[in-house]
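Audit log entry. Action: structure prediction of a protein-small molecule complex. Ligand: adenosine-5'-triphosphate. The ligand was supplied as SMILES and no pocket hint was given, so placement is left entirely to the predictor. Protonation state taken as written. Sequence taken verbatim from the request; no trimming, no tag removal. Recorded inputs:
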Amino acid sequence: MPKDEAQVVLTADNLNKSIQQGDDSHQQQTILNNLSLTVHAGESIAILGRSGTGKSTLLNALAGITPVDKGNITFCGKTVNQLTEREKTLMRRENIGYIFQFFNLVPTLTVKENILLPLQLNKQYNTADQQLNQQLSQLGIKRLEDRYPQQLSGGEQQRVAILRALIHRPKLILADEPTGSLDLETGNQVAEILFNSVTEDSALIVVTHSEEIAARAQTVYRLVNGKLVQEK
Ligand SMILES: Nc1ncnc2c1ncn2[C@@H]1O[C@H](COP(=O)(O)OP(=O)(O)OP(=O)(O)O)[C@@H](O)[C@H]1O
């Protein structure tokens, strides 16, 4: 289906976000500058950009984690800015799979428990076990399923975080440098799983420094001076 005819999953209209620089409250750094974005169902988007330009801030804003100073975000027909914190938590839990740059695994849960957590929180019956076992094996972490996060390397934690973000088949997957801690081969396997998980009802936004990962995406933007410049 042509992109323009597909259902819209998320729109961001004229987002503005500045942060205070250092201790001087008069010095502001503009991170998002009238940034707009439309995400269609079935779409995969890569966002490139230099370190510190605000890519993680943008993902956090889209997920309703970081408030913006001005602008509107609509997700699944709801205006995110108007939701209560509780409603935003539920929205993320049910409809967003977020792969954080620093993984954010729950230290007291095993690998398998971490991955299954979204299903448990959503009171969803686990119908994904066979597929999960296959993905754990594919990513070389099946043998680690009973370990705790602190017993894993960074790259192993990253793979757990990826499977956890996908388990509840979210409408929107937000991935912040999902292959940053992985070798080339494992990174490619992860990218395969990530891009294959986009269905005609869901979408993926991946922040990456890797041109190879970006090349897999349908749409590529670069974040420059607080705005998204389309490259593909
Ligand atoms: N909690 C915070 N408080 C103050 N400034 C912050 C905070 N988080 C990020 N920043 C600043 O906001 C800017 C954007 O940071 P962000 O993490 O969004 O960039 P990024 O493009 O994701 O970087 P990287 O590619 O290095 O991960 C940076 O200048 C950073 O120092």
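Audit: result stored. Residues 154-166 form the longest helix (13 residues). The first strand starts at residue 8 and ends at 21.
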